[in-house]
Structure formats: C-alpha cells, structure tokens
C-alpha cells in the first residue's frame, strides 16, 4: 500500500499542472538545471565537514567519547548495543547505517535491540551534515544552539524509542 | 578538528593526508549522486511551484508554520512547507533542497528570521515521518515477520523529540532576549 503513495502524488501533481496549463517539460528542465549549481555551491562545505568528521573518527576520539558516554546512556534506558549507533548517527549517515546493519544481522530483525536500533535510526538525522549543507555559504553565524538542541532532541528521541519499543 | 589532528600526529602521522584525500574522494562520489537525486526533486519542486499546488500546500500548513517559525513571509512559509511535507513523507532527498531554498530565502531578512532558520534545523533533525521507509526495507530484507511494526513507536518517539526540541529552542530564544 505505502509504495503507491509517492508515485500517486507525483501523477496527481503532473495532472494538476497540466490542467493549470503549465509547460511541464520546460518547467521540469528548469528545475533539474538548478541541481548542478546547488551541489556546486554546497560541495566545499560538505568536503570540509566530512573530513572533520572522518578525522574525528579515525583519531579514536569518537570511540573514546562513546566509551565515556555509554554508561550515562545505559542509565537513561538505552541498551549498550545501540549506544554506538546513537552517538555516531549525528556525524555519519553511512557509518551509522553499517552499524544498524550489523545490529540487525547479529541480533535478528525482530529482536528488541534491532527494533530499537531501527526506530532510533528512523527518528534521527545526520545533524552535522544537514546543518553544514543548509548553511553552506550563508552569512549567518552561531548556529551552535540549534545544533546542541538538535543533539539533545536526538538523544531524547532515542530514549523514547527504547521505551516505546518495549511497551508497544 | 585540531584535537583529532594532534591525536593522529602522535599515533599515526602518515594517516592524516591519506584520510583527508580519501574522504574528499568519497564526497565527490556523493556529490555526483546528489546532482542526480536533486535534479529529479528540484524538477518536481519546480512543477509544484509553477502549478500553484505548492501555494495550496503552504496555505494548509501555514497556521502551524506561523506559530512554530514565527514568520509571516509567504515565500518563507512556502519553502518551509515543502521541507516539512517532504520530511513527513519520508523523502529526505527532497527535504534537503527545499530546506536549502528556505534558508536562502530567509537569509535576506536576517536578523528577523534567525529564529526561523535555527528552528528549521531543529525540526529537521528529528526527521518526523509517517513512513520510515529505509528501515522498514532493511528489516524486510533481513527476514522480519512484521517489518512495519516499528512505525508506531517511531512516530511517537520522533513526535516527543520534536516537541521537546522545539520547546527548548523557544526557551533558549526567550532567555537570549532576556524575557525569561
């Protein structure tokens, strides 16, 4: 059922545009054209932020931080096995995805740990990447409060994921 | 970044440049993918824009957006509406270009819109969505009996997280302005 939602919305949009006498072909091309300049603009910022994140991981600082923070997360009801996922998720989409896949293959798709992990992955975001892309080249400074609040939000989300997965 | 570099200098100095270049290569590959993905979504967004359907969507969502983002500008509301609805539908790849558009259009009205810009990041970070398609797909391929049974806890948890983060930002904003 759910796989039909997006295609149906798309068809609805195209029919609607046709009724409104929009030149769909030209409009589509105009939009698609903007893609290259958009990526061109954000590319240097993604390179910079991704290098920072990778160095952070390769240097072992990230691992150390995870070790220090794990007991605190345990205390908040987040199982040990998914701590790494919660902590890596804001930094790396591909890294946290591979942790998620490991968890699913190690514990089985229907285990409590896997359900928690999936839930956490689905309700969180690679905050540092998103923030760097959104503010790429923008003049606004000091977005730190938004990032800190987002991190807190993700941790709260993780706590409630573990709670809701237990009772539902 | 400096701390990471210092640690690496001690444990494995030859890794530094290699790591940086390798990651840069990864980003180039990622960006080529993004050009493809954003081309499709920006094209669809353009049609949404030109057909006037986007304005209708914005009108439906504008009461909520006005309240949370504290902005009255029609253009801002429209792009925020695109961003939110892409997120809700689980279309992360459509949410990013519309989010960038929203930030770009809001930048013209700084500092009035600074709060809304920060709010956009906060709301995006908990990625509220009706159908977490990626993880459902993952579970289905791993042989789960009911891959979609995480939908309900997911929605509830991200709802709680979103509400808490939105409130936190509002409180922060009030403290900063000295109203609390």
Describe the structure.
The complex is a heterodimer of chains A (168) and B (180). Chain A has helices at residues 5-19, 24-58, 61-75, 80-88, 93-107, 112-122, 127-134, 144-167. Chain A has 168 residues and is mostly helical. In chain A, helix 4 runs parallel beside helix 6 (112-122) and helix 5 (93-107) runs antiparallel to helix 6 (112-122). Chain A starts with a helix and ends with a helix. Chain B folds into two domains: 1-51; 52-180, no CATH class. Chain B is built from eight helices and no strands. The longest helix of chain B is centred in the first third of the chain and has 37 residues, at 15-51. Chain B is globular. The model of chain B has no long low-confidence stretch (mean pLDDT 88). The interface between A and B is large, with 82 and 87 residues.
Rounded radius of gyration of chain B (Å): 20 Å
- Write down the Rg of chain A: 20 Å
Overall mean pLDDT of chain B: 88
Which whole number gives the mean pLDDT of chain A?
88
Question: Could you say which structural class the secondary elements and strand pairing of chain A correspond to?
Answer: mainly alpha
How many H/I helices of chain B?
A: 8
User: Low-confidence parts of chain A, pLDDT < 50 over ≥5 residues?
Assistant: none
Tell me, briefly, the overall form of chain B.
globular
Biggest interface, chains and residues, is: A-B, 82 and 87 residues
Beta strand count of chain A: 0
For the termini of chain A, the CA-CA separation is 23 Å
What would you call the shape of chain A?
globular
**Tally of discrete structural domains of chain B:** 2
Spell out the helices and strands of chain B N to C. HHHHHHHH
Number of strands of chain B: 0
